[in-house]
Amino acid sequence: MLTEKKQILSKGFDTYLIVIYVLLVIIGWFTIYSSSYDANDSFSLFNTDKAYSRQFIWILVSMALAVVLLLIDGRIYQNYAQYIYYACVLLIVSVLFFGTEISGAKAWIKIGSFSIQPIEFAKFATALMLAKFFCEGKTTSEKKNIWLFSFIIILVPAAIAILQKDTGSALVFFSFIILFYREGMNENVVLFGASLILVFVLTICLNELYTIAIITVGFIVAWIINRNQKKKIIRNILVYVLLIGFVFAVNFAYNSILQSHQRQRIDTILGQSIDPKGADFNLNQSKIAIGSGGFFGKGYLNGTQTKLNFVPEQSTDFIFCGIGEEWGFVGSLVIIALFMALIIRIIILSERHRNVFTRIYGYGVASIIFFHLLINIGMTIGLVPVIGIPLPYISYGGSSILGFTILLFVFIKLNDA
Amino acid sequence: MSSLYQQRKNVIILVMIVFMAVYIIRLFYLQVIDDSYKDDAMRNALREVIVHPPRGLIYDRNDSLLVFNEAAYDLMVVPKELHDFDTVDLCNTLDITKEELLKRLDKARKYSPLLPSVFEQQMSKEDYGYLQEKLYKFPGFFVQNRTLRSYPSAIAAHILGYVGEINDAQLKKDSYYQMGDYIGISGIEKSYEEELRGVKGRRMVLVDVHSRVQGSYKNGEEDIVARQGSNLWCTIDAQLQKYGEKLMANKRGSIVAIEPSTGEILCIVSTPSYDPNLLVGKQRSKNYTALLHDSVNVPLFNRALKAIYPPGSTFKLANGLIAQQEKVLNRNTIYNCGGGYRIGSHVIGCHHSGPTDLIAAVRSSCNTYFCRAFYNTVSNCRTIQEGYQIWKNHINQLGFGQCFNTDLPYESKGIIPSVEYFNRKYNGSWNGNTIVSMGIGQGEVCSTPLQMANLLAIIANRGYYYKPHVVKAIGSKNNPNRRYAQKIDAGINSEYFEPIIEGMKLAITSGTARAAAIEGIEMVGKTGTAQNPHGNDHSVFACFGPADNPQIAVFVLVENAGWGGTVAAPIASLIVEYYINREIKRTEVEKRILELSIK
After folding, report:
1. Which of B47, B112, B114, B369 is the most buried (most CB within 10 A)?
2. Residue B63 domain boundaries
3. DSSP characters for A219-255?
4. How many domains does chain B have?
């Protein structure tokens, strides 16, 4: 009887994904427990004053939800994708009016003693919406406008997130570019995007005149090399003008729009700030925590930097510090390996799948998880700016773990169909 | 088409893997290759708290406590750990100005940004309690327990010395110390610094980002327990010392009492003195400056060791010994005293007259006799230079013209001029008569009270001495201080002491020193008058007792008190009486001395 039931649940469901998910969630809980560990306190799983017991409740809820998601008929997602999306957009808009502000971002809704961050669910909804749009848009041959509309789909929640002052979450929506690329977006567009990033960095690190000079030299060199091919000259000039315009836009935005702490964060990551106690204090502490872990780490519950609050946000955005400090290079490697296994497994399963909706949704899931991984770990080791987004399944936070559980288990369910 | 997508899938996976590979390389660099983060982490979370051991206690020879420790609290600062804090609040709490605060932080930063420096010294318990509640607001600051010296009976200030904050020069010399540490600056505190200071301990504690202590590191495995400094037992007899200081109140001068059989100093008084408790704690530097600038009393000046006086008649004892040793005279040699010693037209006067032998000369302190004895001693060779050099060697052997270099601080050598000095002074043409006043303890010769007391110890011992010192035992009373246990020969045969001692006994019973007679104790003594060109002569008395079993040798000098028999002799005899009998029967003598005030 019991084995029979087990069979129904796991029949066709991808065991690899489920195992990796469970491992990540368990590692996450133990890391949160460690970061809030105090030898003098008594251990209690159901004392909601403690971060680890709250997270334990969220994990139970998430796992229950995962089982429910596996039991629900998978077809509803394709059928109702747009409604789920609209509902989520409405929800995040309502946060603008009824939300609670926590650490600078008005992105939360308070329900009792728990706070919900609806934007976490909007990521899932947007992935669904894009999947539906791509798989149905292609059949209606609106090829010309397909990229325009798909950008609108991601821009709406991103814009609302910016209005909530939640820049990190807004950026997450741009991770769908990976999905766009897979679905045939011109690689020149992706390259153009990459050069925009380069120009952005150069403008802030050097100054606008040097950047313009570098761009100009670059284009002249490219023109000399390719001077026999005349056909794309107009387009290249246009790109050139756009890039120069972008330099001025960045310069203006940096000096006039960004707030000083944001400016400082960007400066710090680009190596522009040398004040050790200033903006890069947190980043420095984060690097010290990870760097002091060594090869095998200091051992579980023995981290000093995380335990003594030197690292900011150590159970949420900077949770990787706890892993790096207590489990060392080995632990860091295991985490990255688990995530990469998860992401690549999703991509492989998506490619294998006959259903286009499932494939595109799968790419959406992989894109979001990868982007979080890239930004979250990158910021703790000082390779990307400090942007506050959680490490999926590991960071403390109910909305985060619920959102990512839904994201993954909907894919597992769809993949099974 | 599908091959394009297949290719793009691979590009996506490849790019992801490349990104993660970069991260892994970066992590490998941070965690495995670059060790600086480990140091940073230690610096972040680990604070080395120096545990200052209490200094050793100091007892007198009879186990009564002379110096102990009291708790105090120092506010420390680690400049690198400072964050923004409310300077006004801190200034108000400590009652200092903002300029002072900035100055102190600057000083601490100059010393070391990473090591703790003392920011505010020796807070009282109340101030500490008040500050402790607010300490979390001032990251980078913490409080360290200290101990301060305390002197229950406030005696022997000069000998015990004092401790104070280490200065930059000392700091550079010895790496044991850190800025703000205390070190013995004078007296026993200085000469036994290494024994008294103990061994610093260290506690490794974890602090959080706000510099609040969160507990010990590795359960204290790496802590080092502080070891209290060794206790010392002085040779000083606290009661005798106290009594001596009482007798010398309102007078200037000093008392030095030595146990002849060991060289142990039983009491050493120098007045005017000061209360050693003044040179402790926050008020130390203020009080020190006040004492230093008291040019009338000069209380910091230890007369017993540093003041040099013409020794006066007590010096005749030394000359009597040397003359016998050089066979210039013996106990039966008689010189006729015609009321003075004549050098051409100049006469060194004498209070008595008639034929005088050595014993009688000592008894009545005959100037004529000792001038002749000295003249004959230095003129006993081919040249005056040779003769004087022989005399000088003897007088050096008797402890004059040199330091003992024991545990006593800052001795003066006194003055015994060299042959070259006289050659220069008299252009090479001088003879025994030129310098004959040295025979009666005047002229160029100068000595310290300590040297004179030592001479008495030599006489009491009949020919040898132990270097005078003040520490009897270190660590435990059963562990005697062996540094000064070497018996030193004074270069005079023991039989030559008998006529001298005989004369000194007679001086007490029927001579110049009758004021020093004590019932029941056979005293041996010699008066003196140290000539003072600046005012009244100094009253001098040297004695020991009992004659056949000397337990104490005393030298007393009272400035400007005139003839030795009037003031110095009663004081010295009261010291002997008190030391041997532990009570004073001659209460009128005591009363007179206590009431006597000499400015």
Report:
1. B369
2. 47-234
3. HHHHHHHTTT--TTHHHHHHHHHHHHHHHHHHHHIII
4. 3
